[in-house]
Write a structure and sequence with these properties.
about 180 residues; mainly alpha
Length: about 180
């Protein structure tokens, strides 16, 4: 056995394929017969691709302009709707604030009346009831219904500790001995 040579190493020999020679001969014949036609065809394909790319870029820029105009219109419409909603909200807030101010004024007026009545030695509860306006009287009119007799839930002699007088359920002591389960 040779020391310098490794047994699993392959020798590098050039690959020879007889089919490739046949293919190169075939391609050479086609180029010889139709070379000018292939050259003209490749130039026409190149020009067609250039024309289409220019056309597509023009179309994209046109749609981008349209999209920009459409986006601008939508944003303007949204801004207008937001302003309108904000105005409605501001109007509601102003009404609520006005009502709160009126209620605070009414409370302040009632406190002043109570203070004056107390200074005069009168009862403040009576004067506060008398100071109600007719609007408050009409809004707070409620029809009082007489109380109906309540039905009791159990009899008087019922006692849950004794288990007597109850319904069908009563307590019974458990069975003596080991439990038989099963």
């Amino acid at each position: 056995m040779d020391v310098n040579r490794v047994p699993y190493q392959k020798e590098n020999t050039p690959l020879k394929n007889s089919d490739l020679g046949h293919v190169s001969q075939f391609v050479g014949e086609i180029l010889a017969q139709y070379g000018w036609y292939l050259l003209i065809l490749s130039v026409l394909v190149y020009l067609l691709i250039e024309h289409l790319s220019k056309r597509i870029s023009r179309w994209r820029s046109y749609t981008a302009l349209q999209d920009a105009a459409l986006v601008a219109k939508r944003q303007e419409a949204m801004e207008l709707a937001r302003r309108r909603m904000q105005e409605e909200l501001d109007a509601k807030a102003a009404m609520i604030k006005e009502k709160q101010e009126q209620q605070e004024e009414e409370k302040r007026r009632q406190k002043i009346e109570i203070w004056d009545s107390m200074q005069q030695g009168k009862s403040y509860k009576g004067s506060a009831k008398l100071s109600q306006t007719p609007e408050e009287d009409s809004s707070s009119t409620t029809v009082l219904k007489p109380k109906t007799a309540k039905k009791t839930l159990r009899r008087n002699d019922y006692s849950p500790l004794t288990g007597q007088g109850g319904g069908s359920c009563s307590w019974r002591p458990g069975r003596r001995g080991p439990s038989s389960g099963g």
